[in-house]
Write a structure and sequence with these properties.
With about 260 residues, the protein is of the alpha/beta class. Helices cover about 40% and strands about 15% of the residues. The structure holds 2-phosphoglycolic acid.
Length: about 260
């Protein structure tokens, strides 16, 4: 089964809440053994989450980092510090960082380079705003995010890469894209561009859909062509809803595999 489900906890959960979630979620390991599950807690919970996840098949991710290894960068976190906590995945270019914190394509490019240099697997987020969509600029905005983000990176240096297509208007709104809309952007734009970019590299780039994914719509997305899983915000915060969502995704894939 080829399924990746990543939980983006954003700025939610204390250490205690993280531990409570992990204790329960660890009990479901066997059921989810065939999926790649990545949990991205806030920085302050990484250590607790890392300890509880070690020895499980779940992976630990972080939500942001700076590109430097160390230095006078008050309030920032480096790739080395994340590796030190057992982190394997890093969400980069999330729309909340682009649009609330003013992160640019140029900064995201530096972060992507640092991720590859440090063997962290990027979950590189791209997506159009409602305005872009209405103006018919979806593909051009996404192509720019991809091209600027990956500028100067040698595909031979990419061992693993996850791209998350997250339409900004679908994040946290309860208004997910339709499967057809997601496939149109993923197959028609993202995968085409990535095929050109990766050239003859053997690395298979995974593509996730994100934006109001829930237990009752995940099956649609994961059984669609070109979609390898989901990046999940709100529905990943409770063990029950997150487990229900992974279960629904696995069931949809099993039904499809026959
Ligand atoms: P959502 O968030 O699932 O709450 O819409 C997704 C995301 O921001 O990655």
């Amino acid at each position: 089964m080829n399924l990746t489900i990543a939980a983006n906890w954003k700025m939610y959960k204390t250490t205690q809440e993280t531990q409570d979630f992990m204790e329960e979620f660890k009990l479901l390991q066997e059921e989810f053994a065939s999926s790649q599950v990545v949990i991205c807690p806030p920085f302050t919970s990484l250590s607790a989450a890392g300890e509880l996840l070690s020895g499980t098949q779940y992976s630990l991710g972080a939500q942001n980092m700076l590109w430097e290894s160390e230095g006078a960068f008050t309030g920032e976190i480096s790739p080395l510090m994340l590796k030190d906590q057992g982190v394997n995945y890093i969400i980069l270019g999330h729309s909340e960082r682009r649009w609330i914190m003013g992160e640019t394509n140029e900064q995201i490019n530096k972060k992507l380079k640092a991720a590859f240099q440090n063997n962290l697997v990027p979950i590189f987020c791209v997506g159009e705003t409602e305005e872009n969509r209405k103006a018919g600029e979806t593909d051009s905005v996404i192509l720019e995010q991809l091209r600027e983000g990956l500028k100067g990176i040698n595909p031979a240096d990419i061992n693993d890469l996850v791209i998350a297509y997250e339409p900004v208007w679908a994040i946290g709104t309860g208004l997910a894209a339709t499967k057809e809309d997601a496939v149109k952007v993923i197959e028609g734009c993202i995968l085409k561009e990535m095929k050109d970019f990766m050239g003859d590299s053997d690395t298979r780039v995974r593509v996730l859909y994100g934006g109001s994914v829930k237990e009752d719509n995940i099956g649609d997305f994961v059984s669609a062509p070109g979609i390898d899983g989901a990046l999940v915000g709100g529905a990943s915060l409770k063990t029950d809803s997150f487990a229900g969502l992974i279960r629904a995704a696995q069931n949809a894939l099993r039904a499809q595999e026959g």
